Amino acid sequence: MIIIKIGGGAGINLQGIIQDLAQLREKFIIVHGANALRDKLAEDLGQPRKVVTSVSGYSSVYSDENLIDQMMMTYAGARNKRIVELCHQHGINAVGLSGLDGKAVQGVRNKGIRVYQDGKLRILRDYSGKPEAINKELLDLLLDHGYVPVLTVPIIDEQNNAINTENDDVVRVLQKAMHADTVINLIEAPGFLENKNDEDSLIKRIPVAELESREQQVDGRMKRKMLAVRKLFELGASRVIIADGRGEHPVADALSGKGTVIE
Fold this sequence. Notes:
The chain is built from eight helices and 16 strands. It has about 260 residues and is of the alpha/beta class. It has a single domain, classed as Carbamate kinase (3-Layer(aba) Sandwich), CATH 3.40.1160. Strands 5-10-2-1-13-15-16-14 form an eight-stranded mixed beta sheet, sandwiched between helices. A hairpin with a 2-residue loop joins strand 7 and strand 8 (about 120-125). Helix 6 runs antiparallel to helix 7. It starts with a strand and ends with a strand.
């Protein structure tokens, strides 16, 4: 079992990714983002996103009701269905699901995000949370009958509300439940970079023992991504590949050892 996480940047080569996936001979699940599409829609609507940084240094998007609506339109709507469309064009019988559908991904809403505003510690409450479980019966049903699940946010919380979460965390609970041995994370960079501004500074291999120190080395979304990778190995993952989603053959390149391999 392979989990393919497709980043939501504008430069990601969806066509190349799906062409590669059509050649795989083992079962796989797709998890995807849509941040570039969501941000464009937010600007068009005059509702630009707000980013908050917790006291522990992790950045996230402030998820009010407007943002959840935008996610339903972009993540669960346009991006999800375009990926499903591409899959069918390449012979992959895909089914698009948000975490809401069939309670595919269930989570718990955050009690609040601790942030500093104007020099004061504040607790921000929004519609965000952490995934805790997946509907394995539903995913197994699809996989066993030859369908490929294409998953994205929002997910559903304990009160049956739609909430935002990090797709890296969705991958974590998915890997634990499905016992996937390989996770491929396709981003808009060659892999993990020693210097985020220099694409030639790719680190090709990272021992699991170095993950915590590498997490402290970076900031922003990459910091959160490395935390999620570390948790994957705590739950039993055997290989994670962070690779470039912009190339002609992103998945084939990742499986051949390009990018950053952690195992």
